[in-house]
Amino acid sequence: MGETYSGRTLAALAVVGIVGPGMAHYYLNRAGYPLVANVVFVVGYLGAAFLLWNGWLRHIDIGSS
């Protein structure tokens, strides 16, 4: 449970998590699958946000001074 991701891994995840779902949404929408495009975009974007939170922000202790 104590594993953290490196900075490069988090940067790659951020780029892939933003660009990947956006490109998939664009191409699926142009192919005539708007509902699938929206689902892929939302799941991909939220999945990347969760992984970034899990690997980067969860370990920051904000509550104690």
Order of helices and strands: HH
Radius of gyration based on Cα positions: 15 Å
Mean pLDDT: 84
In total, the number of strands is: 0
Uncertain runs are: none
How much of the sequence lies in strands comes to: under 5%
Shape: elongated
How many strands, what sense, and barrel or not for the largest sheet?
A: none
The number of helical segments is 2
Class from secondary-structure proportions? mainly alpha
In which range does the helix fraction lie? over 70%
From the N-terminal CA to the C-terminal CA, the straight-line distance is 24 Å
Question: Can I get a quick summary?
Answer:
Keywords: Membrane, Transmembrane, Transmembrane helix. By secondary structure, the chain is mostly helical.
Tell me what you see in this structure.
The protein is mostly helical and 65 residues long. The chain has a domain at 18-57. It is 74% helix and 0% strand. The chain has two helices and no strands. It has helices spanning 7-30, 34-57. Helix 1 (7-30) runs antiparallel to helix 2.
